[in-house]
Amino acid sequence: MTEIPSEHPRHDSLVTRHRIEEGVERGITSRQGLIAQGRGEAFDYLLGERTLESADEAARAAAAHLLLARHPVLSVNGNVAALCPEELVDLAEATGADLEINLFNRTDERVEAIADHLRDHGAREVKGVRADARIPGLSHERAKVDADGIYDADAVLVPLEDGDRAEALGAMGKTEIVIDLNPLSRSAQVAAVPIVDNVVRAVPNVARHARELRTHSREELAVIVDAFDPEAALDAAERAIRAGVSDD
Ligand code: ATP
Ligand code: MG
């Protein structure tokens, strides 16, 4: 990673790619995760590798949701664990949320490797190891969650979730916050709050907003939540991608 000069025009993208590669080598990220990363990179390139104004507003609404929630949970998969473990731990701390490992291709080895990795980056409690409850409407392996984690949560942040599971979680009545660089992804489209941004920028940005909003009253937070329009956020991102125009 240190070999990439900071003035290299593709510096951030190369660092990110390297982290995913390392994640695969360490058994944290699946090989499918490499493909997902490639897809994400293409969208990020078209977005100008920056946080759109509309994505920043979404991050603020996400922070307000997490602060208002009775039981917020941050869902962690192999890509985000490799890309931004410290930032996830920090966001959990800023919002009082649980961290839960939730994998599309679940294996005990990978769950263990991710749990260790998160603990190495400061996580105290990591859920998702027990997996003693099921999300209704999904096949066995993909449905596994913790009874006192995602199953019980009223607000879930799911970075890079697949469309089916995003939909199934929404059907359970949970407030779903999705981080996905593709505004046309089904996961982004079913979310109460779609954040169209790279997880490496979005996760710390939600944490920053949460710290700023922590002193706000519940009424003030509710105003932020109500004012957010998911369709408008998706439209703004799609416009920015298609036209290469700035939304700000
Ligand atoms: P659909 O949601 O339409 O059913 P999918 O989610 O099953 O599709 P994948 O290729 O698994 O399809 O999706 C990976 C998604 O994750 C892509 O939409 C991609 O833009 C997004 N993605 C990948 N890397 C990142 C990243 N670093 N930050 C944010 N989003 C990312
Ligand atoms: Mg998707």
Q: Poorly predicted ranges (pLDDT <50, ≥5 residues)?
A: none
Spatial order of strands in the largest sheet: 2-1-5-6-7
End-to-end separation in angstroms reads: 32 Å
Bound molecules: adenosine-5'-triphosphate, magnesium ion
Oligomer: single chain
Reported by name, the CATH topology is Rossmann fold
The percent of residues in helical segments reads: 40-55%
At CATH level 2, the architecture is: 3-Layer(aba) Sandwich
Please, what is the CATH homologous superfamily? Phosphopantoate/pantothenate synthetase
Task: Give me the secondary-structure category.
Answer: alpha/beta
Kindly provide the name of the CATH class.
Alpha Beta
Profile the largest sheet: 5 strands, parallel
Q: Rough shape? A: globular
H/E series: HHHEHHEHEHEEHEHEHHH
Radius of gyration: 17 Å
